[in-house]
């Protein structure tokens, strides 16, 4: 079986989806293959996201802000899971992608929207990355290779509800 292919999408593909892609590729290496994209990509990865990844020892090589159009052609690898990471609680529009894969939503506040001094911005990126990491650790515990699409959907949706308070139990 090929590695489980996961696409993280949001609007700009500059922070949350990038953090998710890089973290899953690091922690799930060999078992998972992660990508990220945006419905309206900014065209550049947020430098604070890159700093956050570097500070935790995760490679930033080959990360780029790109359109989800890259993942809809016949020459693209088939996706197994698509996870939106936009913050619907903040009325941020979540992209919709169609295909034969399991979809889930792991809403996260956008750390790129935080204003203030550099310490406040760095803290927002650190917090977002910690929550992403908790959720990815929960994903890694799933026997995705043996789960039905319905079981996987339910498990992923549950992971998307993990908050800071739940994270210590992951």
UniProtKB/TrEMBL annotation:
Keywords: Arsenical resistance. It comes from Dyella humi. This is Arsenate reductase ArsC. It comes from the Bacteria. InterPro entries: Ptyr_pPase, Ptyr_pPase_sf. SUPFAM superfamilies: Phosphotyrosine protein phosphatases I. Residues 4-142 form the Phosphotyrosine protein phosphatase I domain. Gene3D superfamilies: 3.40.50.2300. It holds the Pfam family LMWPc.
């Amino acid at each position: 079986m090929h590695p489980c292919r996961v696409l993280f999408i949001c609007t700009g593909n500059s922070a949350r989806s990038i953090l998710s892609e890089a973290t899953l590729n690091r922690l799930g290496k060999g078992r998972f293959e992660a990508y990220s994209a945006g419905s309206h990509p900014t065209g550049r990865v947020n430098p604070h996201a890159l700093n956050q990844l570097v500070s935790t020892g995760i490679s930033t090589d080959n990360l780029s802000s790109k359109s989800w159009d890259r993942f809809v052609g016949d020459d693209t690898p088939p996706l197994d899971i698509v996870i939106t990471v936009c913050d619907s609680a903040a009325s941020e529009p979540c992209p919709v992608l169609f295909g034969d894969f399991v979809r889930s939503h792991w809403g996260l506040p956008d750390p790129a929207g935080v204003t203030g001094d550099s310490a406040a911005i760095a803290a927002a990126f650190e917090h977002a990355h910690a929550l992403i990491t908790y959720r990815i650790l929960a994903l890694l515990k799933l026997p995705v290779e043996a789960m039905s699409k319905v079981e996987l959907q339910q498990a992923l949706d549950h992971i998307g509800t993990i908050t800071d308070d739940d994270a210590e139990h992951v």
